[in-house]
What does this fold into?
Amino acid sequence: MTKRILHVVTNVAHYSDPSHPTGLWLSELTHAWHVFADSGYEQQLVSPLGGKSPLEPRSLKWPLLDSTGKAWLNNPAAMARLANTSSPQMLVAADFDAIYFTGGHAVMWDFPEDEGLQRLTREIYERGGVVSSVCHGYCGLLNTRLSDGRLLVEGRRLTGYAWIEEMLAGVAGKVPYNAEQAMKRRGAHYEKAFLPFTSKVVVDGRLVTGQNPQSAKATAEQVVALLQKTGARGNG
It folds into this structure.
């Protein structure tokens, strides 16, 4: 059975101040999409509200926009996917082997409290699937509880965009909360690379997390490695 990956993207287009745009950090989607496509996996996009997922303007500039991003921007079918994402209510968790939360600062607003995304995450995980995120995507895991009431991240090793990276990026004063601290308060064992903006991936069972945009490809590769071991969805 062909593996299926559900990519989670944002609907938010700006910080609290509408004059400061944000959105999906494109390479965090395209790097993973390329890895999964090379493995022959089927892929689908979902967002909290469905419909359009805006792009973070900074992610579209050199040198952050690489060949995978350029190929996506020049592919009408790919851009149509971002304009017409599914909503969680349209999807059945049993159809997917893994969920992958992309980032961009925008997700800090619309991922954490979305009950539809929490349902999909919980059900995919409890059916033996892989839960993964990159960069700010781990904000989508902050409040997900398993069927027994425990937080998915409690007691788990993970990573995501570090507070020092927020400060170095010059946006610490614009974000609604410190995601690193929020994870620690939920009992997660947060890890980060020695040097900011270098690739870091943490694998804890079927939870795979990457620290920053530089980690997207390696995160997806670890998801593939796990899926090759676990077999068809619904097992494990």
Remarks:
- DSSP finds eight helices and eight strands in the chain.
